[in-house]
UniProtKB/TrEMBL annotation:
SUPFAM superfamilies: PRTase-like. It comes from the Bacteria. The lineage of its organism: Bacteria, Pseudomonadati, Bacteroidota, Cytophagia, Cytophagales. Residues 136-228 form the Phosphoribosyltransferase domain. Pfam families: Pribosyltran. InterPro entries: ComF/GntX_DNA_util-trans, PRTase-like, PRTase_dom. This is ComF family protein. Belongs to the ComF/GntX family.
């Protein structure tokens, strides 16, 4: 009773608002309001995970099994706003909520017990210190809650890379060449891995990470992101 009183008091003084529309959140809404959840631009890559525009995009760059994204990215759209808040406005809870919601959708579509471990794409330590968290790891945490799969930071970024935003496809591939490695002492032999990131555009970063995992003996690697962009 006492805890409920203080929670109600804090909610009155510091109300929780939906980051998308600004509405006050109910107790059963962890991050996004129900209305905004229902209007998300959900993609359906999980219905054709082996043959879709994402698998076509990365063909020839890696030998991953499946590629999926929760949302379709569009400039000035809802997915871009959420990603901007997640990456640049200190809203790590958005990443976790996107993972939780997509994990529930995947579970409903037969993806339980498909993977042994969730591996987030790593940030360079300097960038993670500046941001305070790795947005891909937050997304992984949300997936973990819904799918009951452990998260492990098995990869490390060996050098700092320039932002990929304004680079061509070839420049992005060159920018991440030999950037990632398996952490010392870790093993992925025989593991079914779902590799996660915030967004897939050319797929260069994800493919570079997937190739490291496969070269070190992973049984297979699937790619899952919050959003898929052009």
């Amino acid at each position: 009773m006492r805890l409920d009183f203080w929670k109600d008091f804090l909610d009155l003084i510091f109300p929780r608002n939906c980051p998308q529309c600004g509405r006050t959140l109910f107790d059963f809404e962890p991050c996004l309001c129900t209305i905004c959840q229902g209007s998300l631009p959900v993609a359906n890559f999980h219905l054709r995970p082996l043959d879709n525009e994402l698998t076509s995009k990365i063909r020839g760059l890696t030998q991953v099994n499946r590629a999926m994204a929760y949302l379709r990215f569009s400039k000035k759209g809802k997915s871009q706003k959420l990603l901007h808040l997640l990456k640049y406005k200190n809203k790590p809870e958005i990443g976790e909520e996107m993972g939780r919601l997509y994990g529930l959708l995947l579970a409903q579509n037969g993806y339980l017990n498909e993977w042994d471990v969730i591996v987030p794409v790593p940030l360079h330590p300097m960038k993670q210190k500046r941001r305070g968290y790795n947005q891909s790891e937050k997304f992984a945490d949300g997936l973990s809650k819904s799918l009951s799969i452990r998260v492990q930071n098995l990869l490390e970024r060996r050098k700092f890379t320039e932002t990929q935003t304004k680079k061509t496809r070839l420049q992005r591939l060159e920018n991440v060449d030999e950037v990632f490695d398996l952490k010392k002492g870790e093993s992925v032999t025989g593991q079914r891995i779902v590799l996660v990131d915030d967004v897939i555009t050319t797929g260069a970063t994800l493919c570079a990470c997937a190739n490291v995992l496969l070269a070190n003996g992973a049984k297979h690697v699937d790619l899952v992101t919050i959003a898929a962009g052009g």
